[in-house]
């Protein structure tokens, strides 16, 4: 039984997040964030609409958010075109915790 528990712990520790990022730190914490969701018809349209700051070092930009003192605007590809829950969740985490990764 102990060996089984140890094996499970090792296997789970090797699992990375689906979006490839590690949570580094909270910039802030908003328990009730004001989020506006903007959908784009395609990944190309989403990338074309992204500000330069979102494109820096992000060759694989899948979604992006604009954070202000009043809330957060989350930009995603229309889920009827491409449902990517890991990127929607990633951006929601930015709306709640700010810039939590580099």
UniProtKB/TrEMBL annotation:
Is Signal a UniProt keyword of this protein?
Answer: yes
- Could you name the domain of life of the organism this protein comes from? Bacteria
Ordered alphabetically, the record's keywords are: Signal
Span of the signal peptide: 1-20
Q: What is this protein called?
A: Lipoprotein
